[in-house]
Amino acid sequence: MIELDDPRALQEADPSGMLRTVLSLPAQCADGYRAGRTAVHLPSSDSVSAIVVCGMGGSGVAGDVLAALYHDRLGVPIVVVKNPVLPEFAGKDALVVCSSYSGTTGETLACFEQASGRGCRLVAVCSGGELARRAEQEDAPVVEVPPGMIAPRAAVGHLSFGVLGVLEAVGILPPLEAEVAHCVRVLERLGHEVGLSRPKGENPAKDLALAIGERRPVIWGADGPGAVAALRWKTQLNENAKVPAFHSSLPELDHNEVVGWSSGVGRDFFLFTLRHDDEHPEVSARFDVSVEVVKGSGLEHREIRAAGGSPLSDLMWLIMLGDATSVFLAYLRGHDPTPIEAIERIKRAMGDRPA
Length: 355
Hints:
It is built from 15 helices and 9 strands. By secondary structure, it is α/β, with parallel strands linked by helices. α5 (106-118) links the parallel β3 and β4 (121-126).
């Protein structure tokens, strides 16, 4: 097992610099917000009937973040599409944001074509590729994401905050400058806490990776931001640490999953509950009793409470901590966190291009 306090060994384990990219999240958020807010030729928001965000994998997180933070605060529905079919209701009064880091994701390109054919109000968020080319042909605005990042999942700040900036610029979201600035400061502080040189016992990401060890992670969050953070933890543990991982949200899991944690079956798993101050009181009250109910399975548990101080900052704080934890777990298990050969094999089999 690699020593997590040996900087040379960790750098050799991460030749592409995934941890360095995780720690760049504060700057990504600031840059993404600026790019979205200053994008030109954005569509009008007059009489917008719905907001549809189309994206897959790491590029689709932007829609999850938006929906979690604003679905109950806006007068129009927010729909996240993670497949190649645009909802039938999306017509000329729908604002459709197509998010693809590479600009080559097949499902997102299919949604763009459907939205264009229906006369939807379009925005593309990408680093180039076919999506940028088609957007230019349709005179649709493009929020430019920096090319050359090591993976789409590593561009979460650029993509998510680019979408937030766009929706502020068109007048759908309120001014976010102060909230974004606060979020950046919060993430900068967290970056110091989870960096390479911060030792075990003082580094929460290293300690969480060690707690997981050889077990399979299970992540619970409250419906909304907590559930989005739980999904992000799950996918980052899958892609970076190369481990099976599972996520669920309260209150839904209290209507099914809790029954599955029967006596003894939890010994090979480790449960994290992701908490934040903006949870609905009825949902918040479920955490302790739900953990108590599954304890008999042998499932070890650790609660993680966000320290962001606002819904946006709490969500991004949880995301950054999970991203760092997944990288340290990759080191522990002897994996380079960057390659995703299983996904590439599927794309080759399907005739898809890298996304």
